[in-house]
Amino acid sequence: MTRATSPTPPGNTPEGYGVIRVEPGPTPGAPHLPEARMSSTTTYTVTGMSCGHCEKAISEELSALTGVTEVAADSKAGTVTVSSLAPLDDEQVRSAVDEAGYELVGRSA
Q1: Would the pLDDT of 72 be above 90?
Q2: Which partner for 96 in 61, 74, 75, 81 could form a disulfide, CB atoms 3.0-4.6 Å apart?
């Protein structure tokens, strides 16, 4: 799988931090699938984020999950929005957020 991340802007501002776009690539040995793909976007509430570094840590962990195409973390709002090729298992998301050192409260309303 080929992954490309967008550069993090210089400076100590929250704009742009925590946003990682992942370009899905072919899985070796997998059959070629048609371009029509199902997609899913879910916003979660996360506690413990306070800065751009926090946003980046969560974004990096979540972007490593299979099928994730984009992650946008917002420390001020306490949310992280995850786009993926198919719906993600909440426990996988929780585990990735825990690994980054934060707590997943649940899906945002």
Answers
A1: yes
A2: 61
Matching residue, tokens 């990735």: 96
d(CA 26, CA 36): 14
3-state secondary structure of 56: helix
d(CA 31, CA 29): 7
> What DSSP string runs through 10-38?
SSS-STTTTEEE----PPTTPPPPPS---
Residue 100's pLDDT is 97
- Report the distance separating Cα 49 and Cα 72, nearest Å: 13
Long-range pairs of 2-6 with CB within 8 A, sequence gap ≥ 24: 3/63, 5/63
